[in-house]
Structures are given as C-alpha cells and as structure tokens.
Amino acid sequence: MRLLPLIGFLFLFISCKQEEKKLTAQQIIDKTIETAGGDKYDKAKIEFTFRKNKYTSERKNGLYKLTRTINDSLGETYDVLTNSSFERQVDGVKINLPDSLSNLYANSVNSVHYFVQLPYGLNDEAVNKKLVGEAEIKGKKYYEIEVTFAQEGGGVDHEDIYMYWINKDDFTTDYLAYKFYTGKGGIRFREAFNPSVVKGIRFVNYKNYKAEPWENVDMKSLDELFTEGKLALVSEIITEGISVDIIE
C-alpha cells in the first residue's frame, strides 16, 4: 500500500513532463506575452525616453498611435505613425515627404516601440513562429523560438530572422537575436538586464552584442558563442522615464 503514493507521484511527474514537451511555439509565445503584460498592452498609453528622444504609444480596440519627439538645433520634430498613415511635423508644421522617406521614418519609429514592448507584437498576423530547440544559458533552461515574417504585413525588413530564448520556468524573454540584411547586414544578440514592471507591464534594458564575421553564423549557436565570450559588446540599450496609463 505504501507504493501507491509513490506511484501517484511518479505518474503526476511524468504527466507534467509530457505536458511540458507538448507546448507549441504558439503556446510558449502566448504564455510569454501574458507574463509580460497580456491584455494590458491593448489598452495602455506608454511613454518613455530612448536616446534623448521621447516616445509614446496608445493602443485601443486594435488601433494604435506611435509617436516620437526629437528636439535638436533644427527645432522640434514630431513623428506620428498609426494603422493607416505616417506624418511628420517640424515646429507644428506638417512636412510633405516622399514615400521613401516616409517609409524610412515610419520604420524607425516602429522599430523602437517594437523592441521596447517585446514580446508584445509576436502574435501579429505577419509573424511566423517555430520552436527549433532548447538551450541552457547561465544555468537556466530556455525554449528557442525562431521568428520570421510574411512579406505581406511584415514591413520593409520582412526578410530579417529573429531568435528568442524564453525561460522555461517563468516565460520571460531573457535573450534575443536577429539577423538583418539592410546596409552591410549583420547579427545582433541581446541580453536582457535590469527588468522592471510598470502598471503590470514588464520592461527590460539590453546589452547588445555582435557576431563577426556573421554571414555563416547559425542563429541557434549564438547562445554558445555568448557563453564562450565570443561575441563583442556593441552598446547598452537603455529605456528611461517609463510611464504607463491603463485606459479602461
């Protein structure tokens, strides 16, 4: 009779392990977004400063408004990106821009908001997610999720490839990497540090590393290169002055 509790425990342990193995890339991303803020993203007004420029985002019922304010010797430049348009104002006057510049500035604004608010955005329609493996970094175990983008809706950099290392215990995104092809191209590997939670939404800063030469580097090997000290630190990416208002 004493064996029954032990057998029950073993059965529960095996069941939990099997359940863990059954997690799909979609389920992992869902848990990660929920851990970081969940539906709070969809009704939040977020403000922050990045590299001396002020950014704000507002989201409600699927609509978004992303802004950037730059103050320099030329005056105040105010960029606004919405679901349907991009507009630039300088000292309160709308500037007519060619499509090439509008797309460039819009992508720049969107990119900053995208990284600051990760993992929100990983369930966009253009995102393709794939569980490609598991890894151990600094004694912690991670899921490796590869993210690619469909051409339609994936933006001007839809050919870029991303990798996310998601903590298997608490479903936080502790590391990410991306391979990009604009300009001369390259690979960046980011280590999250100094996490904070503001009104239920999680934010992190990053240590930004590069791999060189990068052309033949397997994205899945970046965690090993990082652990072995073979990546070069490029910069620290710091988000300051974060404030969040939840709009009910």
TrEMBL record:
PROSITE patterns xref list: PROKAR_LIPOPROTEIN (PS51257)
Pfam families with a match to the protein in the record: DUF6503
InterPro entries hit by this protein: DUF6503
Protein name as annotated: Deoxyribose-phosphate aldolase
